[in-house]
Amino acid sequence: MMRADDKPLPQDPSTYVRVGLGARAYDIMIGPGLLKECGERIARLRPGARIGIVTDENVAERHLSTVIASLEAAGLEPRVVTVKPGEGSKSFDTFRQVLDELIAARIERRDLVLALGGGVVGDLAGFAAAALRRGVDFVQVPTSLLAQVDSSVGGKTGINSPLGKNLIGAFHQPILVIADTDVLDTLPLRQFRSGYAEVAKYGLIDNAPFFAWLERKWGDVFAGGPARIEAIATSCAAKADVVARDEKETGDRALLNLGHTFGHALEAGAGFSDRLFHGEAIAVGMAQAFRFSASQGLCAPEDATRVVAHFKAVGLPTRIADIPGELPDTDGLMELIAQDKKVSRGALTFILARGIGKSFIARDVDPALVRTFLDAERR
C-alpha cells in the first residue's frame, strides 16, 4: 500500500484490504462516511438478520444513532448492549453481562454481533460472539485509530485476567471490518496518539520506508485526509498479510507483538487504567525493545534514538518515568512479563530489532539481562 512517490490515493474515497483466509476471507473497508453505509453492506452478507450491537457509553453517544438508522434502513433489526468505557470492561463480569443481554435479545447463529467501538469493545464483543451459542459471526466497526489498524483485524478476541492482559479469549475472525475514517475526528488527541503507536509499529517491524514516510508525514496523518487513509490502509495491509500466513500466531505473527512484552507488563502494573492507554504502553515498550536491542549490540544506538525521537515528536511516552503514578518494582514487572502469552515453558520471548524495519523473534532471552535492563531503565 505504501508508495515511494507519496502520490495521493485515487479519487474513490474507499479502500479495500482483503484478509486472505480461504473460505473465511473478509474485507476491510477504509474511508470516510462508511458508518452511514454500514447497514447496506452488512445486509448483503446477512439480509434480514438481527444485529446485536455491542458498544460503550461514549461511542453510543456519538455514533450509535447513525449505525441504527443505517441498519434499519437496510431491513436489519438492531439490538443494543452498552458497556462502560475503558479497559476495565474487558472482565469476566462484563463478558457475562454482554452474553446475557445478547441471549435475551435472541441473537441466534444466523444473526450477527456488531462491535461498535475501540479495541476494548472489539475484543469483548468478538469473544462474546465466539462463545454465544458456540459461535456467532460478527462484524467489526472500529471507532478508534488503534482498533482500525490493529485489534479489529486478525481475529484475536478476549478479556483480561488480574494476572495479565488478554490471557482469556479465542481466535474468532470477523466477516467484515468497516473502518470509517471520519469517526477519528471525534477522538481526543491522547486517544489518537495512542493508536498512532500501532501505526508506527508496522514500519518498525519490517517496513523501514513506511517509518521514514511517517517521520515526514505524521502531521498530515493526524490532520486527516489522504495521508490518514494511506497510513491506515498500509497498516491494515501489513497485518492482513501476516494473519493470512499465520492466523493463530504459531510463527511470524508474533512479530506484531513488537513492544508488547514490555508494554503489557506496564499496562498490568498500572492496573489497566486510564493512567496508561494501550498504545502509550506499546510506545514505551517499543522504545524499550530498541534500547534493549542496542544494549545487547543487536542494533545501532542511533536506531533506538531515532525511534524515541519520533515518539517524542508525536507526544507519546518513551520511558517508565513518563508514566504517572506508582508502578511495580523490577521484581513485580518481571513477574508480569513471565505471564506474557509468548512465554513458553518459562522461557522469555521478546520481539527485538537489528534495526528499523528489521525486527525478529528472540526466544530464550536471559531473564537476568532483562532484569538488569529494567533496573537501569528505572534510574
Q: Would you write up a description of this structure?
A:
This protein is an alpha/beta fold. The protein has two domains: 15-186, 3-Layer(aba) Sandwich (Rossmann fold); 202-377, Dehydroquinate synthase-like - alpha domain (Dehydroquinate synthase-like, alpha domain), CATH 1.20.1090. The chain contains 13 helices and eleven strands. Strands 1-2-9-6-5-3-4 form a seven-stranded mixed β-sheet, sandwiched between helices. A two-stranded antiparallel ribbon has the order 7-8. Strands 10-11 form a two-stranded antiparallel sheet. Strand 7 (156-161) and strand 8 (164-171) form a beta hairpin. Helix 3 (92-104) packs across helix 4 (119-131). The longest helix is centred in the middle third of the chain and has 20 residues, at 226-245. The radius of gyration is 20 Å and the shape is globular. The relative contact order is 0.11. Mean pLDDT is 93; it is low at 1-12.
Provide a brief overview of the structure.
Strand 3 (50-56), helix 2 (57-73) and strand 4 form a beta-alpha-beta unit. The protein is built from 13 helices and 11 strands. The protein is of the alpha/beta class.
Can you lay out the helices and strands and say which pair or pack?
Elements: E1 15-19, E2 26-31, H1 38-45, E3 50-56, H2 57-73, E4 77-83, H3 92-104, E5 112-117, H4 119-131, E6 138-142, H5 145-151, E7 156-161, E8 164-171, E9 176-180, H6 189-206, H7 208-223, H8 226-245, H9 260-269, H10 278-295, H11 301-314, H12 330-337, E10 348-353, E11 359-365, H13 367-377
Parallel strand pairs: 2-9, 3-4, 3-5, 5-6, 6-9
Antiparallel strand pairs: 1-2, 7-8, 10-11
Helix pairs in contact: 1-2, 3-4, 5-6, 5-8, 6-7, 6-10, 7-8, 9-10, 9-12, 10-11
